[in-house]
């Protein structure tokens, strides 16, 4: 309850900030973009991870205001990056299904003078389950706009191949749990390998999340994965750390 009251004023008090975690392209060994991840610097409690406040934001409806702040900040930050890379933003279900979301995105892109193709929205399978019809129309509208949509945490929800067949995803992000277990569970490696090859055959991009070791990276290279993300490449960094990372991997 107290946290909820605090969250209501967090934007106004400038307590929210974004950190950015790179995507590394395995072919070119270069950074192709960053995922924006939300953080809350609470004046008394210190740094609060999204797992502890996104739920509150969703329950109270604050997620719309916070989500808009995230989109705007991500676009504004991206506008300062020197190369044509993308920024990916995580969405909650309520945001995705909100009628005003397209206008919010259009306005954020215009205000930051960012081209739509540089913005990617990350949604999860669970967001498609209950409102498949409206999800399809929002997805198509985003695509019409020129933005792209990634299917995040792939494999953890009710992964339906129908989604991949019928919905215009630009990318699949294989959940980090699969990458973690890949080297110890042959079944898991088989799944990762198959999802990568499926994505490639469908001409959808594929990202492996949570890559922490060189061995995992080696497997993913052999499987022909497009992009990787994880602590091995880089932890999420503050906005002012992005340029230094780009210098090392461009
Ligand atoms: O950054 P971290 O690993 O702590 O993120 C934990 C979870 O919070 C992830 O599922 C991530 O997708 C989610 N998350 C991070 N930033 C945002 C955001 O800006 N909006 C929403 N809705 N979820 C976010
Ligand atoms: O649900 P989503 O995929 O958006 O969540 C991303 C979360 O995963 C972020 O909170 C981020 O901090 C975390 N993360 C990113 N890379 C790694 C990694 O290599 N290992 C682990 N354990 N977590 C990671
Ligand atoms: Mn994500
Ligand atoms: Na994910």
From TrEMBL:
Signal peptide: none annotated. Residues 1-250 form the EAL domain. This is EAL domain-containing protein. It comes from Bradyrhizobium cosmicum.
